[in-house]
Amino acid sequence: MILFPCPYFGSEVEFTDERIAHVTDRHPDLLPAHLDRIGKTLVDPDLVRVSTKMATARELSRWYADLLSGEHVVVVVATGKNPRERPRIITAYIARRLAKGQVEWNRS
Predict the structure, then answer these.
(1) For the sheet containing 57-64, what is the strand order?
(2) Among 3, 21, 14, 101, which Cα is nearest to 59's?
(3) Model confidence over 54-78: pLDDT tens digits?
């Protein structure tokens, strides 16, 4: 398990071995080569959206001009109903364009 600091949530975010294996298997363009970009996205996102698939999840994204031909890294983080429960990464992926959804926070 890896713990990443995340100022947006005011706590560390958990990336379990099971979720790391999921991202590595489903999104090999991101992991293992760009693990550091997941951490950077959590520390300093450009945009935070409410997930359209899960009301308690947020999609944090950051643009990287030097990633492939210029891409976003999107990290989907779930928060529990219990405020003492640590937020956890559900998945992460590289996207050319971001999906539409409710913007909760935007770097201005």
Answers:
(1) 2-6, 11-15, 88-95, 71-78, 57-64, 47-50, 103-106
(2) 101
(3) 989 999 999 999 998 899 999 999 9
Phi, psi of 65, rounded to the nearest 5 degrees? -65, -30
Query: Can you read off the two tokens belonging to residue 76?
Result: 């989907």
- Alpha-carbon distance 10 to 32, whole Å? 26
Cis amide bond preceding 5, omega within 30: no
pTM over 0.85: yes
| Distance between CA atoms of residues 100 and 72, nearest Å | 14
Number of other CB atoms surrounding residue 71 within 10 Å:
21
Residue type, 91: T
Tokens of 91: 């998945």
Q: Averaged over 97-107, what is the pLDDT?
A: 92
